[in-house]
Design a protein that fits this description.
alpha+beta, Multidrug efflux transporter AcrB transmembrane fold, Alpha-Beta Plaits, 5 domains, four-stranded antiparallel sheet, 11 strands
Amino acid sequence: MTGPLYRIGRLCSRHHWPVIGVWIVLVVALVIVSRAAGEQNSDNLTVPGSGSTKASDLLEAKLPEHAYGTNPVVLQAPSGKLTDDKYSKAIKSTVTSLEKQPDVIRAVSPLGKAGAAALSKDKTIGYISVTLDLGPSDLSKEEAQNIIDATSPASDAGLKVATGGYLGQAVSKSDTESSEAIGLAAAVIILLFAFGTATAMILPIVTAVLGLGASLAVIGLLGHVVDVPTVAPTLATMIGLGVGIDYALFIVTRHKLQLRDGMDVRESVARATATAGGAVVFAGGTVVIALVSLLFAGIPLVGTMGYCAAVAVVVAVLAATTLLPALLGALGPRIHSLRVQLGRTHPDDHRPHGWARWARGVANRPWRSLVASVAILVVLALPVLNLTLGSSDAGELPENTTARQAYDLIDEGFGPGANGPLLIGVTLDSKAKPDQKNLDQINKKQKQLNQQTAAQEQQLTEQLELEGVPPSQAESQAKQQVKKQSSGSQQKLAQQKKAAQSPATDPRLTKLQNAIKNDPGIKSVSPAIVDKAGTAAVMTAIATTAPSSPDTVDTVDRLRDDVIPKAVKGQGLTVDVGGQTAGYIDLASQISDKLPQMILIVVGLSCLVLLLAFRSLLVPVKAAVANLLSVAAAYGVVTFVFQEGHGASLIGLDGAVPIASYVPLLMFAILFGLSMDYEVFLLTQIQEHYKEQGDPRKAVIDGLANTGRVITSAALIMVCVFSSFVLNGNAVVKEFGVGLAVAIAIDATIVRCLAVPAVMSLMGRAAWRLPRWLDRILPKISIEGGDYFARRDGVAPTGPAAPEPVVKS
């Protein structure tokens, strides 16, 4: 890659204005097209082979109107009851307004017979059940807002209105602007410390912002092709800003050092792009590999989130290797202008700093350094032993969002379980038929009532005739009087007969309904709804506990493993528990099963990449162990803060919240990839000094001394960017923010500046050994292209010609 990157850097530097213009036009065009297309994100909870996915597939095929459930438009009366005249008229108008919306199939009022269950006992809270012809993956934010706007008659009447379900979630996404602004402000200060000039500081910021704009536009357009998770753009923003600034920092730092040594500006830009840029491409490649490898999990939500984040990394690498060289070329020698000194020394003064002393201290006492670093990591990682994968729900959203308000009102009026109904999908081997026994009983009652009525008519007719009423007139009067007296009973029996004639009364379905209803974790179960063919049915079960509660997980497991199998044994029914709540439960279960496999895949791929880059067996193993320890420590902190609730109030949470099942898996891929960035930059310098000097201990000292300031500056930027997203109202985003910030801080300090140099010092020359047979078959890769420039400049390489000594096979 060195030669192509050198030529790209030189070309972009020479033709800087056209390159800058193309980037600006491209980013603006992508943003305009993306905004015109509209925002469309949804959480695809499909888990192949799971019960929730089977239930969803059944309902989509047989009962499409019930496949996604309903969306509650929750209403609360500020005083009085919803049944009061002033409110009932507004509710009726709201239902009519909703039904006129093009995407609404039906809207059921809580004041009617069909929606009676949607009115609280005190009649102060109710909800309109809205069924859409669009699923979560098809509903755009604009379409959702149009439907929500149709509820204005209720709000105009003074009712408190909040929308739940995926309709409310579509417009309840937390803004990231404040987090981005804080992250960028922190980056500006750190870059001023690192570079000492305002002109150099602005380059990584411009590169990262333009790259982020392009990334988010691409991800926005992807949302119209695939199901892009709602948190994916925010995650991409965090990573895009962090790596975008970091990658530019490394290249600009190399460029400034080369200019200090008297190199020509254009040549320096080209060489910085080829050397530091080569390390950027390599490091970015490891991040992308780690993120894309999530596709192997076979979980759509996780895989999509992985490659959306990878888009941000790819664009950041492209910006660092094309846009940044153009900006450096346009700036020329003016990169040293607007000098700023924030610390005791200016970076350009090149006075001795403490990193060399620190490196010597670690190298002189490697065992003490190693034991101390491992002890710290183990202590931080201990809470991970209690880690439980859970699910998030609308109750964790900010209180100013309509989805959260709807969640709280439904909890108040109908109990927590009503916020996450379970859809019971039923496949019948034979067509559903009415309960003939029940129907016979009703017919028998009807016959008895008819006989009783006839007897009453005869008795009354005779009585009237005795009173002198003519026979024909007496018979007519008796019939009218008896009919009036028995009309209520006749009407009730007619209703019972009509209900009994429904295939939903199939004894197999009623037995299943009663079995589910009798479970202690279930509050209520709706009667079955059967499709026209009579081969599929759906019931809605309401749990007694909240969707994210561990007790709900126990309830779903109990229904699947015990209650339902017993109820349908020998009945010719296949039953699956679905709905969003069950989908999150299945997602957590699948991720728990896949996590060890994904860890092995990511670690294996990363070790292979490092083996090719550094031609060493021990270096990849050391990197894998160190990174695993840092990730475990980050998991421990996330478990301690979120799952156990220690200090949760300090980051804007009411208390402990479940750790979303996909957070640890995404965190692992991201952190393992990002930690490789610093690994590559540090080990590249150590290897370069080892080749020059042949002294492994001195190579460790010089490598850490040369990279310590840059790595800590880069890591501090990432920590600030990730930490700023703790301000986001979404609990899942907070989990990512805390986890990633803690992990990067641990990796750049305890691991990279203590554990790694200690281990490298202990390994000595053995760190660079490689069996001859493996050396022969591995392709030659040079990250920063030292050999390329040695050949190009006609300079013979110094020191050991290759990582050696080589072990005989």
